[in-house]
Amino acid sequence: MRRATRSWPVLAFSLSALLAACNGDDGPRQPATIAVVSSGTVVGTVGELLPDPLQVRVTDNGGSPVGGVVVTFTVAEGAGTVTPAVDTTDNNGNASTRWRLGSGAGTQRVTASVPGVSAAATFTATATAGAPAIVAVNGGDNQTAAAGATVATAPSVIVRDRFNNPVNGITVFFSVVAGGGEVSAAGATTNSQGIAAAGSWRLGPSAGANRLSALVLASGVTANPVTFTATATAGAAASVVATGNTAISAAVGTLVSPVPGVRVLDAGGNPVAGTQVTFTASAGSSVVGGTKTTDANGNAAPDGWQLGTTAQTYTLQAQVGTLPVVTYTATARAGAASSVSVSAGNGQSVPVGRPVPIEPAVRVADSFGNPVAGAEVLFEVVSGGGSAVSRRQVTNAQGIATVGGWTLGDDIGTNPLHATVQGQNITGNPVTFTATATAGAPATVSIASGNNQTATVGQTVALPPSVVVRDNRGNPVPGVAVTFLIGSGGGAITGASAVTGANGIATVGGWTLGATAGTQTLIARVNNLPDVTFTATATAGVASVITAQSTQNLGNVVVAISQAAPSLPSVRVTDAQGNPVAGVTVTFELGNLNSGSITGATQVTNANGVATLGSWTLPTTTGIVSVVASIPNVTGITFTANMVAAAATRLVLVSSTAPTTGAAGNTLNTVVFRLRDAFNNNVLQSGVTVTLQATASGGTTPVAGTIATNNPTTTDANGQVTVSWITGTGTGSTQTLTASAPGLVSASATAVLQ
Predict the structure, then answer these.
(1) Smaller CB count within 10 Å for the chain: N or C?
(2) What is the domain extent for residue 557?
(3) 504 in helix, strand or coil?
(4) Predicted model pTM
(5) Is residue 187 domain-shared with residue 260, that is, in the same domain?
(6) pLDDT tens-digit map of 525-569
(7) CATH number where 387 lies
(8) Do 434 and 448 belong together in one domain?
């Protein structure tokens, strides 16, 4: 088929030659030049067929196309292919081929040549990389760095097409997949070399393997994603931690077991081997093998730590360089009980039948003199008829055991008590305590007289209060100091310090109540005994002060029919000390005849000294109104309200000098109109627009007058308009001046012309 196609150019060439011969030409035209007809510079993808054919034109020396010329297309650079490699020009001198680019990215060339023509036509193509096909590590794999540190080389990958050409502009996402840590600039784009690199890779805090994934965000890419591996090693020693309980307890003089140790870690918590640790024991204790080196797990411990012979707190410190010290604390316990002795409570003297003020106590110690805790001690009364409570005790941390209580018998004299430590070979066991029983001491204090009295505030109660002091058997105790002091309510006392007499009674000099009405108290105090409290009721004095309980000045109140005052007058009556006085008659009166009306004018104060007027109906006239509340012999309290006019409802003529008759064309005296409410109160409202109209009627040829002022005009601050009115003409006519305003009843002034 291709061979048949080739016959057409040959036939065309023969026909051309024949025609040329017929025209008298010397012979066939010879090719002189070959030139590119299609684009000479193209861009395509490696390994792909260019969409448009390569086309050249062969011409003779005169520039005319030459048909039938064999053109050879040759791949000069780039290893691509052309099909066909040889073509013959048509009648227009054109020949063409198709070009499949080679697999290498970059510049590729194809030449077209004709025998006998020295200069070939050249086609140049820029071959770009194909779609990403494979990704691989470019750098930064298999690194080693300290845990938590950043690897030296940022991980990078290279992306290539199927011909191994680097692919530019491909997005790669880096992410940590194992070991923790973090990556910066996780999203990267390949450069012209096909390389994409992460910003940095910081390893996780733990020693061991770390992995980072690099994923190409494209389909059809083999080996995707790429995994980078890095090994995190322990860093420098950053902390020292105890490997056991830092609070230890052991017997004095013994070795601590287990031996305290520490673990050295880097900043990420990884154990650090080969680090020197120095162990130092506090005074009194000793350490064996105080300098050690940490093992593979970062652990180190001394060979031993022996406590001293004193029951106290000892410390062992572990030091690594300048890092914070780890401290173990050991509490050295006392050994077995070895001796017992008196600690407190021996040789006391108390009244018969009373407990000793200081409970007997013993101290138990070990062979080194250290107090022994937990030793059982039994306390027993030997003679004297007394008794002990909580007799079986256990020594505390100070080696002390104290009996719960020891009460002496009824017999005056010596009472013995034994304290026995349970155990063998204890020096000083048992311990004997002795106490002397004496006569009784004050045990109770109570009221003798003078309680629950009543007096006026500021007055002295009639009967001075007194108390009686007794011992535990109810006997009065003389010579006991009693102090009297005010408990509540204020007031004053005389003879505050007293001493009980032979009957055990002590009496205050006098008790004057305070200024506040109500319950008041007086306290009688004896050392070491509960206080005794006397109560008295203070009543209010004579009513002498009246004060307002409600608002005295009700402010502006707009007049209205049967209007109750916004607040009823209320007063409080007290005595001179401010105590409310109940049962006082309070009289309420109107301040003037125009102040409205009241009911319940006479009231009696309640328990709080308060009295309130029954009712107050305000008037419909304007001005200050008032109610006065008073009690006998005391200046009253005045409650006031300022009654103001309601909204204006009409205009009225208020000029009293305007004549009713006059000569034609004269200016009459000034005419004044003003605003009033429904109750005929003047309304002080400015700015109301008033329209004035002059008319005339009756008489001979009446002509209305004129108004020598603004019309319409507005009311002034007093709610008034003032008009100069010039009457018209017409003998016997009635001249009228009318003032009106929207929504208001109008008003008129008239004059009859003579």
Answers:
(1) N
(2) 545-644
(3) coil
(4) 0.40
(5) no
(6) 999 999 999 999 999 989 999 999 999 999 999 999 999 999 999
(7) 2.60.40.10
(8) no
